[in-house]
Write a structure and sequence with these properties.
This protein has about 110 residues and is mainly β. It has strands at about 5, 10, 20-25, 35-40, 45-50, 55-60, 65-70, 75-80, 90-95, 105-110.
């Protein structure tokens, strides 16, 4: 069974950085595109970043230039490096890959 477990969230000041990790069990990790989503209170879940099995990345306009998605296939892990964080980045962050259920997410709070 494949499951996704996010970690690395926390409280950070505006302008600070966090690195999120998503560990995936199973042997299909290297073949799947991976995505980071986020959901703020009262808002819809939104796609933040994606990375293909070959390493091609895409980002939402709101995070472009500040966030970097990467993957380590040997460790079955996808990362989201978040720099220059803003209060509007506050949300629960989830990783996702096709056909695998959503995990519990990890809370990111950007506040002074």
């Amino acid at each position: 069974q494949v499951q996704l477990v996010e970690s690395g969230g926390g409280l950070v000041q505006p302008g600070g950085s966090l690195r999120l990790s998503c560990a995936a069990s199973g042997s299909i990790f290297s073949f799947n595109a991976m995505y980071w989503y986020r959901q703020a209170p009262g808002k819809q879940r939104e796609l933040v970043a994606g990375i293909t099995s070959g390493g091609t990345t895409n980002y939402a306009d709101s995070v472009k230039g500040r966030f970097t998605i990467s993957r380590d296939n040997a460790k079955n892990t996808v990362y989201l490096q978040m720099n220059s964080l803003k209060p509007e980045d506050t949300a629960v962050y989830y990783c996702k890959t096709p056909l695998i259920p959503w995990g519990r997410g990890t809370q990111v709070t950007v506040s002074s």
